[in-house]
Amino acid sequence: MVKKIQNNNMDEALQAKAAVVDFSAVWCGPCQMVLPIIEELADELQGVKIGKVNVDEEMELAKQYRVMSIPTLIVFKNGEKAEMSVGAKSKEEIKAMLGV
């Protein structure tokens, strides 16, 4: 399941061994293309937290992580930002970012 992250609550993603957070918006076409992939990965990958941030609702959180364009995917490993990618990505590309 993809967890909606709001109110600067990144705790679950930061406490996980591995996490992917999708910064997006409902009006963004490429973001909507990535969403089903993110949902598939949430069901498939055990031990990886998957979250999404609506940048229109969570501007401060987007600003904190320096999200300038969407979709932006940020991979966290052991609480640290490990990788950041801008633009729509395939399932294989996202898995490669995670190292799985």
Plain-language structure description:
The chain is of the alpha/beta class and about 100 residues long. Helix content is about 35%, strand content about 30%. The chain is built from 4 helices and 5 strands. It has a 5-stranded mixed beta sheet with strand order 1-3-2-4-5. It starts with a strand and ends with a helix. The model has no long low-confidence stretch (mean pLDDT about 90).
Q: Rough shape? A: globular
Overall mean pLDDT stands at 88
Identify the strand order in the major beta sheet. Answer: 1-3-2-4-5
Strand-and-helix sequence, N→C? Answer: EHEHEHEEH
The number of E-state strands comes to 5
Radius of gyration: 12 Å
Low-confidence stretches: none
Q: What structural class do the secondary elements suggest?
A: alpha/beta
Beta-strand content estimate: 25-35%
Q: How many helical stretches? A: 4
Distance between the termini: 18 Å
Q: What is the helical fraction, as a range of percent? A: 25-40%
Keywords:
single chain; 100 residues; alpha/beta; 5-stranded mixed beta sheet; 4 helices; 5 strands; globular
Short description:
The protein has 100 residues and is of the alpha/beta class.
Chain-wise SSE layout:
Blueprint: E1 3-4, H1 11-15, E2 18-24, H2 29-44, E3 48-54, H3 59-64, E4 72-77, E5 80-86, H4 91-98
Parallel strand pairs: 1-3, 2-3
Antiparallel strand pairs: 2-4, 4-5
